[in-house]
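Deliverable D4.2, example record:
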Amino acid sequence: MRSASADLTRFAPGNAFIQLALGLNSLWTNRPREVVDGLRKPLPWEIYLKPSVSIGAMYFQSLTGALHELGEHEQELKEARRGRAVYPDLLNLQAYEVRALIALGHIEEVNRLLDEIIAMRSRWAYPSCCLALATPGYVIQAAAEELRTHGDVQASIKTANRAADWYSSRIGDEAKKEENRAGLGDALYKAERWEEARSVFEDLAREFPANIHYLGRLGTLAARRGDRTEALRIADWLKRYVNPDICGNQTFRSACILALLGDKDGAIALLREAIAMGYGGADPPDPVGYGLIFRHSMDLESLRGYPPFEDLIKPRG
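Output generated by the structure prediction step:
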């Protein structure tokens, strides 16, 4: 994928859209410096970075994600706010700002921002395949994840509970939407409300048996409640599941289960395998690169500080 995009760039060096595609691929493959350098080239970005072309939000997704990986959080915040100015009604951009603010320790600003967006209207940005669902719940969950990554578990749980409240407040057809039900399950999971999360994901897995995320959640929940037999059964099924279209997502899920069971080397072996299979996206539709995903996963917390894991997630370029 990355090689093909690079070839396209050589044939059309002034094409901003191709540079954006290359940036996404570089982010996916944990090469954040390449992302930053490419997206800061003097190209006609104004064609895409305007309110009427919401695909331009992917520019800010890639650039802020890369700057986050590089630890350049002041620049990350600046770019997130620039993106919000272009797309004030797309909540994706608020999530990118929240991530930068937490990394900088500006927690009061985070809370004010969450207060602002809690009543905002959800909007799905085009293309839905490549940008996360733009809802207040998504932004709040992004905050919860970032807080936990920076070691503030209690604040993370509190924030995740706030996300669960938002999803629980959906009514009618909104409450029945698969993405909102899954969002509730993820919020409950991040809030460590294991049994409630398990109930949500059991229902979703029965209704959508092909969804790897739901089965993976049931596997990590089994590991967390001490059911090693069930956790290993799911991990083994995921490891053996063959579907090239999901780019190693199933292998990543299996690695998360092993990490929770204490098998560090087994988990890292599977993470390496997932990368080789093309893994670089979180739960679709939010491709932000395996380096950022692995570092932020609460299921991989036991691997943090372990030299083979730290070597695996360090930026490659």
